[in-house]
From TrEMBL:
<dbReference type="InterPro" id="IPR016156">
    <property type="entry name" value="FAD/NAD-linked_Rdtase_dimer_sf"/>
</dbReference>
<keyword id="KW-0285">Flavoprotein</keyword>
<keyword id="KW-0274">FAD</keyword>
<dbReference type="InterPro" id="IPR023753">
    <property type="entry name" value="FAD/NAD-binding_dom"/>
</dbReference>
<keyword id="KW-0249">Electron transport</keyword>
<keyword id="KW-0053">Apoptosis</keyword>
<protein>
    <recommendedName>
        <fullName>Apoptosis-inducing factor 3</fullName>
    </recommendedName>
</protein>
<keyword id="KW-0001">2Fe-2S</keyword>
<dbReference type="InterPro" id="IPR050446">
    <property type="entry name" value="FAD-oxidoreductase/Apoptosis"/>
</dbReference>
<keyword id="KW-0411">Iron-sulfur</keyword>
<dbReference type="InterPro" id="IPR017941">
    <property type="entry name" value="Rieske_2Fe-2S"/>
</dbReference>
<dbReference type="GO" id="GO:0051537">
    <property type="term" value="F:2 iron, 2 sulfur cluster binding"/>
</dbReference>
<keyword id="KW-0496">Mitochondrion</keyword>
<dbReference type="GO" id="GO:0016651">
    <property type="term" value="F:oxidoreductase activity, acting on NAD(P)H"/>
</dbReference>
<dbReference type="GO" id="GO:0005739">
    <property type="term" value="C:mitochondrion"/>
</dbReference>
<comment type="similarity">
    <text>Belongs to the FAD-dependent oxidoreductase family.</text>
</comment>
<dbReference type="InterPro" id="IPR036188">
    <property type="entry name" value="FAD/NAD-bd_sf"/>
</dbReference>
Amino acid sequence: VEVKIEVVIPEKERSKEEMSPNGKASPLIYKVNGTARHYHLEEHPVASNPYHNPKDMVEASVCHVKDLENGQMREVDLGCGKALLIKESGEFHAVGHKCPHYGAPLVKGVLSKGRVRCPWHGACFNIGTGDIEDFPGLDSLPRFQVKIEKEKVYIRASKQALQTQRRTKMMAKCISLSNYNLSSTNVLIIGAGAAGLVCAETLRQEGFSDRIVMCTMDRHLPYDRPKLKKWLFLQSMDSHPEQIALRPKEFFCTYDIEVLTEMQVAAVDVKSKIAVFKDGFKMEYNKLLIATGNMPKTLSCKGREIENVFNIRTPEDANRVVKLATSKNVVIVGASFLGMEVAAYLAERAHSVSLVELEHVPFKKFFGERVGRAVMKMFENNRVKFYMQTEVSELREQEGKLKEVVLKSGKVLRADVCVVGVGAVPATGFLKQSGINIDSKGFIMVNKMMQTNIPGVFAAGDAVTFPLALRNNKKVNVPHWQMAHMHGRIAALNMLAHGTEISTVPYLWTAMFGKSIRYAGHGEGFDDVVIQGDLDELKFVAFYTKSDEVVAVASINCDPIVSKVAEVLAAGRTIRKRDVDTVIFLSFRTGDMSWLTGKGS
């Protein structure tokens, strides 16, 4: 028996026109430094499909048909690239072998019930279609058709697909590029982060062919904020925002997604369906998505306006901090994810790094005291000095620039640069008089379909609270990059009246001093932490429990256990505290995933 794999071109997505009353669209508007520039689709023609070129195809023998058992995956080399061969329920499937997000090897991920989950950041892909089903990331996997003939396995694939290891799902475009009323749109998206972009892309993927406008206070097109926070792109002093863009400018032009940069919405009139911008411009909408994210908190002490005190929010902020901090004294206020990531990055570049925190252990509320102390020790071993259980009382300057940070404990720290990472608040102040329900902390309240209390108005991302199925539909705020993606997709589907409810498992990650911490679930209010492994060696798994139930898991150097647990939770199964020492960790050791297919606890 032979197994042959050849590229299958995805069929064109069905077209939907329920939200296209006038059939008109506008040229794209891309505003930089206050100047509007117009792009027409014909300036950026869509490239021809590379899979149609027979000279681009390659075929190779990769293995015997009996080499794979059910539930197994294997990377196979075709000479000019690799594919992931999968056998599940007696059937073979083949897709790209790398996660399109950051390139993780999917063969080290988790295979369960028709999908493979990335071992690094939890993105999920359908093994039959290659489509992305959970995030982060925007692209799907290339899919290859499998044929069985004789006893050898052959793969026939596109060279380009093997090299790129990604596939952008087919999208609709506006059905007309005739003149459009620039002061009205069918869908208005306030915010151009992950939630806003995924919403726009999902609408196009589902065949929506009317006008979509995104607006943002940023001067840049949507970019990868985790890369900004985690400093992955700062390999030189000449780094540019384009290096971390989620999509190139041509993408927005091709698919008629308009982006208005440096445009701030000042108010929303939900009765008239009008958004009012800060400069007085007004735009009518039919459907509205609010995905404004959050704004960093600032210090309230004397001297907070001194030069060289930063809240890192933009690529320009990040580059300036790196430039100013090199070989200088840096004080970081707040042991948040941002504060700790900045400290880890600057430890080898700055003369000194001091971190000021009100709690006595970093990450205590999120990871627990034991894990927090282990992380703190890693930082101390890398020359980061902690000043805990104190706050900043004053920032002192010399000739207009920062010189010293004075703590309430009386300690005075030398400082050339200060980075503030003391948390954030939802950017929803402009909605106070709108009639949209907002809780006491400023978060927009939505249901499982990301709908607000106002018909046609949706909200997504860091600025919302929503019912989390994992925690019995408790209303929670989950400011994770992965969750923002899913919010945007759910909002788009329900703008199209699909009736889709959110059910994803939260998943986050961070990297410090070459150690990656992965986390899945929602551990808010946990009452115990069960540790498997060695905290001192930074090789462990931490299970967070509330009463007798595991509600979250974190790990360092134990991939892919977090993705495995995420898959269990996504299946609706309950993990009890008593299971941790046996079923969970044994499956990690042996790789046996058969218990995933069970029911109940």
